[in-house]
């Protein structure tokens, strides 16, 4: 329960109408606010939440606003609490910071270019074995989603696992100044959001903004560029995980990949345990050992870590392997940048080399937000695809057309993911393996939807089977 005294202390706001003094939680959305919650009216790209204060007050217990002119008299007369502040986003930040300061457990901040959501979920899966974990839900990793997640804290919360996203310098610093993490996890440094950062060095600087806040930093020792920055900027306890580099705190041996499972031996000092993951790819071993190292650092033993890792089912749209009508789809449509694209291609190659598939098809959408690197990174991708056994490459979007033009082989350039789905529907055959990936804005999930709807594709597959 949040009480009005704490809210006023945290936000410095003033009470305009005093109704309920206790609230079950915070909501920023009148469409989903629940009975007893306090609405915070935020201004967004499409709407100003103040326009929905009345709706919110009808269902909720009160509101924090910065502008009273939207509050109708009949709602005021209804005795719903109304708190006036100068800046509602800042009020959300201050409230989250206030609640965090009262919290005595560990707060784990997960940053890095790739794998944050998956690593956050893996850490939570392990810690939940014996603790009540509060985690950022889904991908809510920005200056709205992360503080909002903190406000879900209650007296039963033992530990927090918070994903922190960034697409420009200063984001991680801002998020850390609210969450005050004591343990940091940096998954890796890669080519992401270069439009906002300009260079890989600036990406590293941005992710390392977590360093001054934490006492322990869990880092990927195989990422030598990251490690160079960590050693320069961090003076606390460094906990390392690695597949290749020897001597890391958490390492792995005897990796076995298949399209059903990923097995390996997880080693911590002189102890080891076998792990059988339901998720796929070498990059997911990194995410798993990042989670293992974090859990180890807060006192979890290897059996608990095994249980948490093995029960994890994966996150939607992140390298899901789906089989439909004899075709294997690698559904990696959540996002894309040059580093994660390379990882996905490595996995495609590994699967092709297993000899189980007839043909490989890559359906790839633009990698967005790369600024000046956009064209050159797409051209490089086309060249890389040319030297692996990809039968057909369907490129979606204007940037991918540069990749298609560099591709030596059967390349098709289309404008939208719907068009790509139709093309794919025309060519897929039973026994094919298809990688589908692109930036969020490219909506590559529509490729799979279009194939599923395509009668032609279904017909072709049935014809092939008989
Ligand atoms: C605020 C909010 O959550 N908006 C989401 C909402 O947008 P919508 O169009 O409905 O409204 P507005 O934002 O314009 O509305 C303002 C407020 O009005 C409320 N409201 C509106 C209508 C109504 O009838 N009643 C109302 O009460 C409304 O609820 C608002 O409070 O829906 C969209 C579609 O689902 C969402 O896209 C939109 O989400 C925005 C973008 C958001 O910031 N959401 C956060 C909760 C969040 O964490 N979102 C993550 C995205 C994270 C991300 O992209 N991370 C980047 C790094 C980012 C770094 C930082 N510099 C940055 O720029 O943010 C990364 O690479 O990881 C997510 O959704 O996944
Ligand atoms: N450790 C990793 N190294 C490289 N690529 C990865 C790694 N983990 C995941 N990926 C790729 O990144 C995609 C998104 O994964 P995830 O959502 O876990 O990352 P994220 O960092 O949270 O992304 P975002 O920045 O959009 O929040 C996956 O589908 C996969 O292609
Ligand atoms: C979805 C957002 N978190 C992200 O990763 N954006 C990049 C540009 C992408 O979608 O590839």
From TrEMBL:
Listed name of the protein: UDP-N-acetylmuramoyl-tripeptide--D-alanyl-D-alanine ligase
Protein keywords: ATP-binding, Cell cycle, Cell division, Cell shape, Cell wall biogenesis/degradation, Cytoplasm, Ligase, Nucleotide-binding, Peptidoglycan synthesis
GO biological process, one term: cell division
UniProt main location, coarse: cytoplasm
Stored SUPFAM superfamilies: MurD-like peptide ligases, catalytic domain, MurD-like peptide ligases, peptide-binding domain, MurE/MurF N-terminal domain
Domain (Mur ligase C-terminal) ranges: 317-440
PANTHER family per the UniProt record, alphabetical: UDP-N-ACETYLMURAMOYL-TRIPEPTIDE--D-ALANYL-D-ALANINE LIGASE
Residues holding ATP: 112-118
Function in brief: Involved in cell wall formation. Catalyzes the final step in the synthesis of UDP-N-acetylmuramoyl-pentapeptide, the precursor of murein.
Any one annotated GO CC term: cytoplasm
EC number: 6.3.2.10
Family of the protein in this entry: Belongs to the MurCDEF family. MurF subfamily.
InterPro entries: Mur-like_cat_sf, Mur_ligase_C, Mur_ligase_C_dom_sf, Mur_ligase_cen, Mur_ligase_N, MurCDEF_CellWall_CoF430Synth, MurE/MurF_N, UDP-N-AcMur_synth
């Amino acid at each position: 329960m949040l009480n009005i005294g704490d809210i006023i202390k945290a936000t410095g706001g003033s009470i305009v109408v005093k109704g309920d003094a206790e609230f079950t939680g915070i909501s920023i959305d009148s469409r989903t606010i629940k009975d007893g919650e306090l609405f915070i009216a935020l201004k967004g790209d499409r709407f100003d939440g103040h326009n929905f204060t009345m709706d919110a007050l009808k269902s909720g217990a009160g509101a924090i606003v910065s502008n009273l002119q939207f509050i109708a008299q009949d709602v005021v007369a209804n005795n719903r609490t109304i708190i006036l502040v100068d800046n509602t986003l800042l009020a959300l930040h201050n409230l989250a910071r206030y609640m965090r300061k009262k919290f005595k457990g560990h707060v784990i901040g997960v940053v890095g270019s790739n794998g944050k959501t998956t690593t956050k979920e893996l850490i939570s899966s392990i810690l939940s074995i014996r603790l009540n974990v509060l985690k950022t839900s889904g991908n809510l990793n920005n200056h709205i989603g992360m503080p909002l997640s903190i406000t879900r804290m209650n007296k039963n919360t033992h530990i927090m696992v918070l994903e922190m996203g960034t697409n420009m310098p200063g984001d991680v610093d801002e998020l850390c100044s609210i969450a005050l993490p004591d343990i940091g996890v940096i998954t890796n440094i890669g080519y992401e959001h270069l439009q906002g950062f300009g260079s890989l060095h600036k990406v590293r600087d941005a992710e390392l903004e977590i360093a001054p806040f934490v006492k322990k930093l869990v880092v990927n020792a195989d990422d030598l560029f990251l490690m160079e920055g960590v050693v320069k900027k961090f003076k606390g306890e460094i906990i390392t995980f690695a597949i290749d580099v020897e001597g890391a705190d958490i390492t792995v041996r005897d990796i076995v990949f298949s399209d059903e499972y990923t097995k390996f031996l997880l080693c911590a000092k002189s102890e080891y345990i076998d792990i059988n993951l339901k998720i796929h790819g070498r990059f997911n071993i990194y995410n798993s050992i990042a989670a293992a190292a974090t859990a180890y650092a807060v006192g979890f033993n290897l059996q608990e870590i095994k249980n948490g890792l093995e029960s994890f089912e994966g996150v939607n749209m992140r390298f899901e392997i789906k089989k439909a009508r004899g075709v294997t789809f690698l559904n990696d449509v959540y996002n894309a940048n040059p580093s994660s694209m390379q990882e996905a291609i490595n996995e495609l190659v590994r699967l092709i080399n297993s000899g189980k598939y007839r043909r490989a098809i890559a359906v790839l959408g633009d990698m967005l937000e790369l600024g000046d690197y956009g064209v050159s990174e797409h051209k490089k991708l086309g060249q890389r695809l040319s030297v692996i056994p990809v039968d057909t490459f369907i490129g979606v979007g204007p940037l991918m057309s540069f990749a298609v033009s560099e591709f030596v082989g059967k390349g098709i350039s289309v404008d939208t993911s719907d068009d790509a789905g139709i093309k794919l529907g025309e060519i897929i055959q039973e026994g094919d393996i298809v990688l589908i990936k692109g930036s969020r804005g490219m909506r590559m999930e529509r490729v799979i939807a279009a194939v599923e709807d395509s009668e032609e594709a279904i017909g072709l597959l049935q014809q092939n089977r008989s």
